[in-house]
Amino acid sequence: MGVVFKAHDPEMGRDVAIKVLKLDESLGEAEREEVSRRFEREAKAAGGMNHPNIVSHYERGQLGQHKYIVMDLVEGRSLHQIMSQGPRPDARAAVDILRQMASALDYAHGRGVVHRDIKPGNVLVQTDGRAKIADFGIAKYATPGSTTSTSVVLGSPHYMAPEQIEAKGVTGRSDQWALAVTAFELLAGRKPFESESVASLFHKILAAPLTDPSTLDPSLAPVKPALEKALSKNPEERFATCTEFIAAMEVALFGAAQPGVVFTPSRPKVKIKVRKSLLLVAALGLGVMVLSAWVIIHFALAPQKPVQTASPAATRASSAVVHNAGETRLNRRDGETYVWVAPGHFRMGCSPGDSDCHEDEQAHEVTLTKGYWIAQTEASTAAYRRFSRAVGRDMPKAPDFNPNWSNDQMPVTGISWDDADTFCRWALGRLPTEAEWEFAARAGSPELRYGPLDEVAWHKANSGSKAHPVKGRQPNAFGLYDMLGNMWEWTADRYNKDAYLSGPRTDPQGPPTGNFHILRGGSWLRDATEVRVSGRYPVTGDNPDHVIGFRCAADDLP
Q1: SS3 sequence, 21-73?
Q2: In this structure, what are the phi and psi dihedrals at residue 128, rounded to the nearest 5 degrees?
């Protein structure tokens, strides 16, 4: 469906892969349209996700008649190549790859995306052992509790679930089936259902019992129940999540979930094959991108024992970069300045003497163990326009106080929670948690505001009934502007009144479910009673309004 080129992004200082849609001239008009739709679907499905085990999609666009996607350059081989060329990873290393796949799939399913074509050929394994799922070209979106359906059978025959073969609705459990087929093949050395014809293969998938893996490898006898459950003909009888399936396999094989054991190929031998050179200069949102000739690297994988990795905490400690509190850095993706906020402990919730504090703001002690970057200002019109051009979407409807989005320094408004989340992920970050937002807003102050109201915030009494450009009021002690007033700001957390006090006191993330998201900080339209560092305002995520904006946070910035 596409030709992939290796490229260098000079602005971000990294190599990337650019997938360019290639339409076979022998295809009919309807087929060409379908291929084009799949390409767009891949860009849309993967572009909204940010997970270490999913190939990141940075941008998509079109140059002349050529559509393209800019994505991760993964140095390694596909799982199919590793399995077919050998040596096959041993059980512990295989399960580590499967665990990574499960994490990525559960993440995608949580965002309403069903991959529908999970197979070893769509899993890339880097030279450091990290697995990344690729090719969302036939992915479908599903709303929670629903299934996606189609009258066309899509997928790779050996890995298709019964409901896919019968063109019934598919859910995340359809991907779980494909993951289980991959697990069987990875551990036993052959697929659970095989036949010389597709028709016979489909019949076996629909009706035949599972091949007992112990007949292929006696050591796999304990894992048979987990495989049988994940490969149940009825999707309702499978595991609730992919991670639950892999955890059951780990317990069966090893007696408990295993630490980070990864398959690490030896240093690859390289032979290079260069296709016809192509020089293409594309004016992308990232900057000028120059495509060189694509280099295909074939790795010869020598036998290698699994390597025991350090614990995540030890890894962070050994690789941590020390930042100074208040240090600033330009995020070259969105063009905004970010400020480093060091870890710390603070009293979250009602401030002493705050008579306007609500019941769901009860004070409690919170510790943040990790520092983070946070945008110095609310996301500006200029930053959001940069994002819109990069991903090929329209700007939201302009507010009266910024007609036609003419003032680049105005905060962008009318943004839903999903749009804000997508922007921040595109900008290599995320939305801040409630705790991170309040810690940054307080900037060490225990008071209900970090300075005199009119000096630090635009609110109903001084705004003139409109929003104002960013940096229009005094910053707090961390150098952050408009944490109070101007625009309500989305945070990552969902709303649950009880979870605010009953949840973790260290690095709280908010409840996992809920119908409302939390806004913070008050706005140009609100009374002073709402413009407080502890104020919380629950609203539905699909409630874009011209009093709502956001700012991003990030664990790291390149």
Answers
A1: ECCCCCCCHHHHHHHHHHHHHHHHHHHCCCCCCECCEEEEEEECCEEEEEECC
A2: -95, 5
- Has residue 300 got a pLDDT over 50? no
CA angle 141, 492, 349 (to 5 degrees): 155
Task: State yes or no: is 117 an active-site residue.
Answer: yes
Report how far residue 253's alpha carbon sits from residue 244's, in angstroms, rounded to the nearest whole number. 14
The closest alpha carbon to 213, from 125, 100, 122, 91, belongs to: 91
Residue 146 has pLDDT above 50, yes or no: no
pLDDT value of position 315: 26
Query: Do 143 and 233 belong together in one domain?
Result: yes
How far apart CA 431 and CA 438 sit, in angstroms, is 13
Do residues 411 and 484 make contact, with C-beta atoms less than 8 angstroms apart?
Answer: no
Same-domain check for residues 506 and 467: yes
pLDDT digits (tens, 9 = 90+) for 378-435: 999 999 999 999 988 899 999 999 999 999 999 999 999 999 999 999 999 999 999 9
Q: What is the mean pLDDT of residues 232-253?
A: 92
Q: Which CATH number does the domain housing residue 280 bear?
A: 3.30.200.20
The whole-angstrom separation of Cα 426 and Cα 58 is 7
- Show the domain range for 407: 321-554
The angle that helices 172-188 and 91-110 make with each other, rounded to 10 degrees, is 170
Q: And the tokens for 104?
A: 């990525």
CB atoms within 10 A of CB 195: 16
Q: Is residue 15 part of a domain?
A: yes
Same-domain status, 390 and 502: yes
Q: What separation, in Å, do the N-terminal and C-terminal C-alpha atoms of the chain show?
A: 32
CA distance 185 to 174: 17
**Distance from C-alpha of 465 to C-alpha of 163, rounded to nearest angstrom:** 55
Q: Which two tokens stand for residue 418?
A: 């999903």
- Which of the following is catalytic: 9, 72, 96, 117? 117
In a domain, 60, yes or no: yes
In the chain, how many domains are there? 3
Nearest in space to 2 (alpha carbons), one of 157, 134, 152: 134
pLDDT at position 47, please? 58
Does residue 289 register a pLDDT over 80?
no
pLDDT in tens, 332-366: 999 999 999 999 999 999 999 999 999 899 999 99
**What is the mean predicted confidence (pLDDT) over 142-150?**
38
CATH code: domain of residue 115: 1.10.510.10
pLDDT at 15: 81
* Average pLDDT of the residues of the chain: 80
β-pairing verdict for 488-494 and 344-348: unpaired
Asked whether the CA dihedral 142, 246, 38, 292 is positive or negative, the reply is positive
Residue 303 lies in a domain: no
Q: Let me know if residue 313 belongs to a domain.
A: no
pTM (whole model) above 0.70: no
